[in-house]
Specification:
- With 515 residues, the chain is an alpha/beta fold.
- Among the domains are: 180 residues, Rossmann fold (3-Layer(aba) Sandwich); 112 residues, GMP Synthetase, Chain A, domain 3.
- Helices cover 30% and strands 27% of the residues.
- Strand 8 and strand 9 form a beta hairpin.
- Helix 1 packs across helix 2 and helix 2 packs across helix 3.
- The longest helix has 22 residues.
- The protein is globular.
């Protein structure tokens, strides 16, 4: 396949599918509006005219900070057509990573849908996205001219495609995909989705519903693949689980791709067997405990398939989509490329850091030092620690950099979490290291109970002692109504660590005062 085939395929859909619905935006129970393929084509051309009028040329960077909506795809298609570098950024992200990215890869133009974002984006050239106006790209202020190009950084317009944000945290990673990488991603996704035949015997492809942020690679690739297949794509604006359920029911969605945190939120609000049309559900992005995976499958009435992937080395490296013999909690067997597990001394082992090599493992960070550290001999070092059993099944253990030393032994907090999550009362759990004395660390737990469940600290710690390693027993536990989450839905470990440390210190201070 030529590098342009994926992009040509999208443009052919725009021309040939005409009045068929391409995209809809749904907010709660109300459909805001929908675009046909011909309307999406018209909006793409409108974007091209605006961007060209602003002086943008091939290789220029266009930063887009917006929520899920069809306008994003009009901008994306225009950027592909004009060979621009698109930088999609999650609207809620306000960390230092954004400022570093702006300094390292300054955009020529910024598009926002909310003026409140401007405080994070000091820039002389900003357009605001007005969804309800016919001419929906409007300058915030009188725009200054495009800056002089830096001759020391030549543009490779035929190779550069887009920058993107992390699929798990929303933090800009500063990654640049080439068109060749995009083709490899889309080809593998097509093979992966063929393993979930939701259109058997049907004359037209079923609709897809996307609840992931389109600024993340998971949401963006899922949406692109749906459009390539000629499916109607429903975009959800807000994150209310009850709204997701309503749209999933109404659309007759048969295949659902979610990160586990969204899946758990969805089912927490679900009634018994809420989605009778659903045939397949694929959970990607982080590991799910064996007990939780079984519970989610029972609630949905269909098997929830576990998987593993990263934006840097292709989603869907491991999955369990057609393997009824896969052990509970496994990420599955290797599906794409090569993989090996490296111990701390660099030797291959059954448990260690996952390193992968496939057609997409090309150094893609804009930070040269990060490329040198993460890509070695065409192997991408993921930073994730996995275990492989004798049958070739992989199990997520934790992050390599999350290791802490407890009682003189190496402990990965996720191993403790996996033990705790076997308790039926727990919905979520975060284990972090806290300081209990000078030079001494122990583990502490932040736990969230299932709705209506009850358990006290002693019960939970006794449960761990009956199953986990004695030397890693937590010394402190705090109950949360809801664990704090990052923009992508993963637990905010840094915040949990700070709050658990503060709670432990206060408790120890009270005890000393009483003594």
């Amino acid at each position: 396949m030529q590098h342009t085939d994926v992009i040509d395929g999208l443009f052919k859909r725009l021309c040939h599918d005409g009045s068929k619905t391409a995209l809809t935006l749904v907010d709660g129970q109300h459909r805001k509006f929908s675009w046909s393929w011909s309307e999406l084509q018209r909006q793409r051309r409108y974007c091209e005219e605006v961007l060209q009028a602003q002086g943008l040329q091939a290789g220029d960077r266009l930063l887009v900070m917006t929520a899920n909506n069809p306008h994003f795809f009009a901008l994306l298609l225009a950027a592909l057509s004009l060979h621009l570098c698109l930088l999609p950024v999650h609207p809620d992200f306000a960390g230092t990573g954004l400022q570093q990215l702006l300094l390292r890869e300054p955009p020529e133009l910024i598009v926002v849908d909310d003026l409140r974002h401007l405080s994070r984006l000091p820039h002389p050239r900003v357009l605001r996205l007005h969804e309800r106006q016919q001419q929906w790209l409007q300058p915030v202020l009188r725009l200054r001219s495009v800056r002089q190009r830096r001759q020391s950084q030549p543009v490779r317009a035929e190779a550069v495609l887009l920058f993107h944000s992390s699929g798990s945290t929303g933090a800009p990673k500063g990654m640049c995909y080439t068109r060749a990488m995009l083709v490899a991603f889309m080809q593998h996704l097509a093979v992966l989705y063929q393993a979930f035949p939701d259109d058997a015997g049907d004359k037209k492809p079923s609709a897809r519903v996307n609840v992931l942020p389109v600024t993340h690679w998971g949401g963006l690739s899922f949406c692109l693949q749906s459009l390539l297949e000629g499916r109607t794509l429903h975009l959800l604006r807000n994150a209310q689980a009850c709204d997701h359920l309503a749209v999933l029911r109404r659309s007759g969605c048969r295949f659902m791709l979610l990160v586990p945190s969204l899946l758990q939120e969805l089912l927490a609000a679900a009634e018994a067997n809420p989605l009778p049309a659903l045939r397949h559900c694929l959970a990607m992005g982080e590991a799910i405990s064996s007990a939780r995976l079984q519970q989610l499958s029972q609630q949905l009435g269909v098997r929830v398939h576990n998987g593993y992937g990263m934006s840097e080395c292709l989603t869907g490296i491991f999955n369990t989509h057609d393997d009824v013999a896969a052990p509970s909690g496994s990420c599955g067997r290797l599906r794409f490329g090569e993989a090996r597990l490296l111990a701390a001394d660099g030797s291959e082992a059954d448990t260690g850091e996952l390193c992968v090599r496939n057609p997409t493992t090309t150094p893609c960070y804009t930070d040269a030092a990060l490329n040198q550290r993460k890509y070695r001999d065409r192997w991408f070092h993921t930073g994730d620690r996995l275990h492989r059993d004798t049958n070739g099944y992989y199990f997520f253990v934790g992050r390599v950099d999350a290791m802490c030393v407890i009682n003189g032994r190496n402990v990965y907090p996720q191993e403790v979490e996996q033990v705790m999550l076997q308790h039926p009362a727990l919905r979520a759990c975060v284990a972090v290291a806290i300081t209990v004395a000078a030079g001494s660390e122990r583990l502490a737990l932040a736990v969230e109970l299932q709705d209506g469940a009850t358990a006290d600290a002693n019960e939970l710690l006794d449960f761990y002692l009956s199953r986990g390693a004695l030397f890693a027993t937590p010394v402190w536990l705090a109950f949360y109504g809801e664990l704090p989450l990052l923009a992508g839905g993963k637990p905010d470990r840094q915040r949990c660590g700070m709050e658990l440390q503060q709670g432990y210190d206060q408790a120890q201070g009270l005890q000393r005062a009483r003594a």
